[in-house]
Design a protein that fits this description.
This protein is mostly beta strands. The chain has one helix spanning 100-109; strands at residues 5-7, 10-13, 18-23, 30-36, 43-48, 54-56, 64-68, 74-79, 88-96, 115-116, 120-125. Strands 2, 4, 5, 6, 9, 10 and 11 form a seven-stranded mixed beta sheet that branches.
């Protein structure tokens, strides 16, 4: 249905910023950002539904911001005040017609039911 392609990852020192991008081919439904650190479960970061409603994980509230362009060709994740614990592979995923909160929780635990990009690595050093 859609093949997300992530970009924008890299290495940054604690307190720095990065902006991730996801090419999503005009996807009209809920999308989200997820991450997975070595040895840890994949977790939802933030999702946005077709009406622009957002749901953020507690760990990133106030620091990360999700946005889309008007045509929904691109999804963005602006990350500020980065911490070493933010280090992970970051993935963009399509969640279908579910709400943002449901996407954030369900898809992280059931990744086979979404459409995923290949990920982009974010490394935050102290």
């Amino acid at each position: 249905q859609v093949q997300p392609v992530e970009s924008g990852g890299g290495s940054v020192q604690a307190g720095g910023s990065l902006r991730l991008s996801c090419a999503a081919s005009g996807y009209r439904y809920t999308m989200g950002w997820f991450r997975q650190a070595p040895g840890k479960e994949r977790e939802g970061v933030v999702a946005i539904d077709s009406d622009g409603r957002r749901n953020y994980a507690d760990a990133v509230k106030g620091r990360f911001t999700i946005s889309q362009d008007n045509a929904k060709n691109n999804l963005y994740l602006q990350m500020t005040s980065l911490k070493p614990e933010d280090t992970a592979m970051y993935y963009c995923a399509a969640c279908g017609s579910v709400g943002a909160g449901y996407c954030l929780d369900y898809l992280a635990k059931n990744p086979a039911f979404g459409y995923w990009g290949q990920g982009t690595q974010v490394t935050v050093s102290s």
